[in-house]
């Protein structure tokens, strides 16, 4: 594998409003949407790592975030297409600790050590 | 399955026939300590002994669940002989373990450290017993042909990332479909990672009765997770792109493939007949409410081994460096970067399906071929590195008698 393929994102289900990055994308990078794609491409508005999610459509605050065709969380604030969807803007409907994790490292911020 | 190209389905290798009719892929010896106070001596006994694995229970007060699990491992098809070592104060009795193992047709010995003069003499005595067990396990070994129909394979995921649900787990799920079609048994667990998937689980039931069982298993899990306020998602999962337990759950469930679920077994029960099974390791309600849902990956793996799995597939997107006592662990990653970074630990790169290098079907066939190779005696990478992790803590499960899983 000498030629680096264009970064792409995988949309698992046609009803999904997010896709998963198959390789890291830089800010401004055009991403081909593969899988059950509802659109051909999207531009990453910020750097997004492999395995992380990009928003495909605008998602309003309180609206469900959908992947695999199921609700995986709720938008904590409005999310624009091309934005990284993660701990800073999407929380679990069940897990009480969701919303207390560092967006980059995942480190919990709600545990006292003293 | 039109593009199944190789001869995976007619693989045959030589295994070990046990008196109960099950077949093993290893002929290991097991040293068991019955309390933390005996663990150092047990560890020294097992040290540098080939094919000798160590398990045990740290608590002084005994626990039904823990005893069932240790007995299930001590009479596992991969085990040829057992030495149980106690301190002499604890509730759990080494001689009772040895008796149960002898009743299974295997050689077994036991002793208390307090009756053997302390650390040095106990280690020497233990090594002496181990030598005689090794000789007997070797003499007793009956080598027989084995096929996929003789296999029970477990699947566990840990250190999951955004690739696990797209590549690692789906490839294992596809391999499970193949194994089931070939007459083998496949077991997956991690019910705590099926959050939000009640309808999907129930839709996979082999019968209305199983549908009811799956629904009840889900309901128990959800009420337990809510009660202990613990969900099975970790900082590493977050760093790897998984945002919530709901997202992780869909990916985790993919390792269950697509075949009908034959039923739910509890820890230390075995599948009563071949096919795909769900293992429920979630604690049942109890006045002490002890036990976390799944404290770590090794506990889940031991549950799968206790169900009779001769080999366990471990799917890790971020990379993990564990192995397993009793049964070989095969490490699968859906993340090509992880495969490259941890090439000494990772057995299989399922990330190639994401780049289009191989199809899902090809990857599943390759993985089954690797399972057959490991079953025939080739060491998996964790085995080669000397990994043989074990973990057991107090838990309460209402599982009935040990024989429950043996009724065919």
How would the blueprint of this fold be written?
The complex is a heterodimer of chains A (114) and B (408).
Chain A: E1 8-11, E2 18-21, E3 30-35, E4 41-43, E5 53-55, E6 64-67, E7 70-75, E8 84-85, E9 90-91
Parallel strand pairs in A: 1-3
Antiparallel strand pairs in A: 1-2, 2-5, 3-4, 5-8, 6-7, 7-9
Chain B: E1 13-17, E2 23-24, E3 28-33, H1 39-46, E4 52-56, H2 64-74, E5 79-86, H3 94-103, E6 108-112, H4 119-140, E7 142-146, E8 152-157, H5 164-181, E9 185-188, H6 198-203, H7 208-228, H8 235-239, H9 245-253, E10 261-266, E11 275-280, H10 297-306, E12 311-315, E13 329-333, H11 336-341, E14 348-349, H12 360-375, H13 381-384
Helix pairs in contact in B: 1-4, 2-10, 5-9, 5-12
Summarize the structure in words.
The complex is a heterodimer of chains A (114) and B (408). Chain A has 114 residues and is mainly β. Chain A has a single domain (8-91), classed as Archaeosine Trna-guanine Transglycosylase, Chain: A, domain 4, CATH 2.30.130. Chain A is 0% helix and 30% strand. Chain A has strands spanning 8-11, 18-21, 30-35, 41-43, 53-55, 64-67, 70-75, 84-85, 90-91. In chain A, the strands form two sheets. In chain A, strands 4-3-1-2-5-8 form a six-stranded mixed sheet, with no helix packed on it. Chain A is globular. Chain B starts with 12 loop residues before the first strand and ends in a 24-residue tail after the last helix. Chain B has helices at residues 39-46, 64-74, 94-103, 119-140, 164-181, 198-203, 208-228, 235-239, 245-253, 297-306, 336-341, 360-375, 381-384, and strands at residues 13-17, 23-24, 28-33, 52-56, 79-86, 108-112, 142-146, 152-157, 185-188, 261-266, 275-280, 311-315, 329-333, 348-349. Chain B has 408 residues and is α/β, with parallel strands linked by helices. A seven-stranded parallel sheet of chain B has the order 10-11-9-8-12-13-14, with helices on both faces. A four-stranded parallel sheet of chain B has the order 4-3-5-6, sandwiched between helices. Chain B is 36% helix and 17% strand. Chain B folds into two domains: 13-144, Rossmann fold, CATH 3.40.50; 148-384. The A-B interface holds A 1, 5, 10, 12, 20-22, 49-53, 65, 67-68, 70-73, 85-87, 90-98, 101-102, 104-108 and B 161-163, 165-166, 195-197, 225-226, 229, 231, 233-247, 250-251, 317, 335, 337, 354-355.
């Amino acid at each position: 594998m000498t030629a680096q393929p264009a970064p792409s994102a995988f949309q698992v289900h046609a009803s999904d409003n997010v896709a998963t990055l198959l390789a890291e994308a830089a800010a401004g990078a055009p991403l081909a949407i593969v899988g059950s794609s509802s659109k051909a491409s999207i531009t990453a508005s910020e750097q997004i790592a492999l395995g992380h999610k990009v928003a495909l459509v605008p998602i309003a605050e309180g609206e469900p975030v959908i992947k695999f065709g199921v609700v995986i969380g709720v938008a904590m604030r409005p999310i624009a297409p091309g934005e990284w969807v993660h701990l800073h803007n999407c929380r679990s409907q069940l897990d009480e600790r969701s919303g207390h994790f560092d967006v980059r490292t995942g480190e919990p911020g709600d545990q006292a050590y003293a | 399955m039109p593009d199944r190209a190789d001869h995976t389905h007619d693989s045959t290798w030589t295994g070990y026939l046990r008196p109960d009719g099950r077949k093993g892929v290893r002929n290991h010896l097991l040293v068991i300590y019955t309390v933390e106070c005996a663990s150092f001596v047990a560890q020294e006994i097992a040290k540098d002994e080939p094919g000798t694995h160590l398990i045990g229970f740290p608590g002084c007060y005994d626990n039904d669940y823990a005893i069932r699990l240790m007995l299930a491992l001590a009479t596992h098809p991969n085990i040829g002989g057992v030495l149980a070592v106690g301190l002499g104060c604890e509730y759990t009795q080494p001689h009772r373990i040895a008796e149960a193992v002898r009743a299974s047709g295997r050689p077994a010995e036991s002793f208390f450290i307090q009756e053997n003069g302390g650390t040095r003499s106990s280690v020497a005595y233990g090594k002496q017993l181990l030598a005689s067990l090794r000789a007997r396990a070797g003499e007793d070994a009956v080598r027989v042909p084995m096929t996929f129909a003789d296999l029970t394979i477990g699947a566990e995921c840990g250190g999951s990332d955004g690739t696990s649900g797209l590549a690692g787990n789906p490839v294992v799920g596809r391999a499970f479909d193949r194994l089931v079609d070939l007459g083998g048994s496949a077991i997956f667990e991690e019910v705590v990672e099926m959050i939000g998937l009640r309808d999907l689980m129930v839709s996979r039931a082999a019968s209305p009765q199983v549908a009811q069982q799956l629904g009840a298993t889900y309901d128990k899990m959800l009420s337990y997770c809510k009660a202990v306020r613990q969900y099975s998602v970790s900082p590493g999962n977050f760093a790897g792109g998984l945002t919530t337990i709901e997202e992780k759950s869909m990916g985790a469930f993919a390792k269950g493939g697509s075949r009908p679920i034959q039923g739910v077994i509890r820890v230390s029960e075995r599948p009563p007949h071949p096919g795909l099974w769900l293992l429920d390791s979630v604690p049942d309600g109890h006045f002490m409410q002890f036990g976390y849902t799944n404290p770590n990956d090794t506990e889940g793996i031991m549950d799968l081994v206790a169900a009779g799995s001769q080999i366990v597939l471990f799917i890790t997107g971020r990379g993990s460096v564990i192995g397993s006592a009793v049964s070989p662990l095969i490490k699968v990653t859906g993340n090509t970067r992880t495969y490259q970074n941890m090439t000494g630990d990772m057995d299989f790169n399922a990330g190639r399906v994401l780049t289009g290098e191989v199809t899902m079907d090809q990857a599943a066939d390759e993985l089954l071929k690797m399972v057959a190779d490991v079953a025939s005696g080739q060491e998996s990478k964790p085995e080669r590195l000397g990994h043989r992790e074990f973990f057991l803590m107090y838990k309460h499960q209402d599982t009935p008698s040990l024989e429950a899983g043996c009724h065919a």
